[in-house]
Amino acid sequence: MTSLVAGVVGGLVATVVMTILMNVMGDGGPPPTAMFVAKFAGGDPEEYAMPGMLLHFVYGIGAGAVLAVAAPLVGLGLGSIAIAAAVGLVYGLVLMIVGMGFWMRVVLGMEPDKDMMMMFGTVHAVYGVVLGGFLGTGVLA
Questions:
Q1: In a designed cystine with 127, which of 18, 34, 52, 108 is the match (CB 3.0 to 4.6 A)?
Q2: Is the pLDDT confidence value at 2 over 80?
Q3: Is the Cα torsion angle 100, 103, 106, 108 positive or negative in sign?
Q4: CA-CA distances (angstroms) from residue 40 to 1, 43, 61, 85, 112?
Q5: Which has more pLDDT, 77 or 92?
């Protein structure tokens, strides 16, 4: 069984990779999580870039822990890197759909354009593959 610690570490590793890719592909603006913080704290999302990034990492680490604990409970084996990476890819795409469909559109009232959707989808797919691949190695299991 995959451990919670492996999920936390895998979530951190996957979030670092995702964040680097976001910075390469993005427009240099704050992450959507900064917009979330600004919505509730008031003010400009640019002012909340760092708290937004911290929240982004909390989400990524938490999502890694959830996959590591939940996958074995629902019968998804993560014992092979290829299978775990495929499970991670699907998981990353589910996170993308929830992120765009609920957080961006409902909570933040945003309508992401095509470029943002492509970037958001790509970075979440990469997050999932890296997370699944990490969990599939069995390190920290």
A1: 18
A2: no
A3: negative
A4: 39, 9, 22, 35, 20
A5: 92
Domain limits of the chain? 4-137
As a whole number of angstroms, the distance between CA 44 and CA 130 comes to 32
**What is the rounded radius of gyration, in angstroms, for the C-alpha atoms of the chain?**
15
Rounded Cα gap, residues 88 and 68, in angstroms: 10
Using alpha carbons only, what angle is made at residue 89 by residues 116 and 10, rounded to the nearest 5 degrees?
100
- Condensed to tens digits (0 to 9), the pLDDT of residues 127-140 reads 999 999 999 999 88
From the number of C-beta atoms within 10 Å of its C-beta (0-12, 13-18, 19+), residue 81 rates as middle
Residue-wise pLDDT tens digits, 44-53: 999 999 999 9
Number of Cα atoms under 13 Å in the Cβ half of residue 8? 4
E strands, 1-141, are none
Question: Can you read off the two tokens belonging to residue 41?
Answer: 């704290």
